[in-house]
Structure formats: structure tokens, C-alpha cells
Amino acid sequence: MAAEFALPMPAEALIPHRLPMRLIDRLLSFADGEGTVEAAVGGDHLFLDDSGFLEDVALVEILAQAYAAVKGFADLQQGGAVGQGFLVGIRRAQLFGKARVGDRLEVAIRTLAAIEGFAIAEGEVRRGGEVLAAANLKLWVPPAGPMGEEKK
């Protein structure tokens, strides 16, 4: 039987990342393998450059963490534990703008396919109505127990 969890939910409960590498703040919405995540760009952000802009690579990592949050929430709803996953590929990455200190980013992520431990997802990072980045991700989600403990 699926458990019920209230949204928004802090990202720390859904992904194995911890500060300073945790780049997302909370899962805002979830339905059928897709969701929306929020990420704030604070002055102490790990990927800020000297001008106060977020390095481009951070937007891809934010997308990957958004997928992890959606997957973690789905696992919890099904009575499982939050596990680990690994970004193994990036396709069709497009960067349209830069995030900066003070921005509140909204990340939409959707699972396109999941086969034998691999998943394909597509997502966008937005600031308000402006799309800053979009990409398709390939992820490996090994069969595991809580936070990556191998199943025996």
C-alpha cells in the first residue's frame, strides 16, 4: 500500500546529497514520474563564480538532483527507501541564460523511460517564466537499500 506524504517536502529527505553539494531545496509537486523542484541560489552557493553567477554545470546538476527528488518521493510513497543514482549521460543540453545570487529557480523534470536500472528524463530550469536550461539526462539507479546500501 502506498504511503501519503505532504508536499512541499524538503529535498534532504529525498536525495542522498548533503550541503554544500545539495543544490535543490524542496519538491513542490509530484505526479506519475514527474515533478517540480525549487532551488534557491544563495550567496554561499558552491557553484557561484566571482561575478555572482551560477556556473553552467550547476544547472545540469540541479536537473539531476530534481530527478533524484522525484524518484526518492516515488520510492517513499511505495514504502521503499531513498536510494542513490548516478548521472551517466547528458543529451540535448541547451543553456539559454544565467542564474545569479538571489534567484529562486523552478525545475520541471519528467521521466521518459526506465529500463533495467537506467532512466531517461527531460527537464527545464526556469527563473520565473524564463527557461535558463533544458536537457535530457540518462541516469543509472542501481538496486539498493537505504541511501545506497547494497541489497544482499
Automatic annotation (TrEMBL):
Gene3D superfamilies listed in its UniProt record: Hotdog Thioesterase
Pfam families linked to this entry: ApeP-like
Name of this protein: Putative 3-hydroxylacyl-ACP dehydratase
Top-level taxonomy: Bacteria, Pseudomonadati, Thermodesulfobacteriota, Desulfuromonadia, Desulfuromonadales
